[in-house]
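Quick one:
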Amino acid sequence: MPHDLEELLTSYYQCESSSETYRWPDNVAYRIIDLIPDKTKETTYFGEVRANYPLCGRRTQGPFDEGFKLPEGMRRHLTGYGNARQCDVMYAAEALARDYWYEQFSEEEAENERKKITDQQQRRASELLYCIGPESPPALIDEGVWPPEEVRSKKSMDWAEDRLGLLGFTVSTDGNVKSYTREMDGILVYADPRRSGRIDFCVYTQPREGSKKARGHKLRFTPTFYIMDRWKNDLPGKFVDRAREAIGRLRI
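Output:
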């Protein structure tokens, strides 16, 4: 193996924190792509630049083009992204890297996790929480929202609450817990407006007492549906259609 490639595959020793380890595979992939000699690259009839992988020499399984499209096809082969078959050499390098990182950063990650739990407990005692379902614990505004920076601002949340009011939802506050609910066709609909750009909904029903479905399952619910902030026309109609579709799935 060329010395420069060997240095890249063992550069995991240079990671100084657990956060750096998350970026290592992509960083190495792009640096390997940069080292591919121009003479080994081929340009297809459609103008795509392709090359065989410099470590394992593997080609794509496609019937027409040889080599991986640069840079994205090659990056996917290197990292295994998107269910792509990962290069055996890179896979082995990552396995060695994970073993090394565990020895170096496991205590740091455990401490970060303890700090995260402590911070969340402090925030729960002082911040507004949102009830997004009858069986879900109240959540912080950024809890379970990914990426966290996509949560609504106060102004945007006020706008979303006004929109929910137009859709027939009741806004309730109990202590520092807020919920948004609407009864519809004997079903309870919960709204989750925390994510910027959309409002998510989930429908719940209570099985009849004594039924088999009631044993061990107090509530049933469907996957969420949503209403986008940018939607303007016939919002009540759009909501009812999606809610009834969800209720239909719930009752199957």
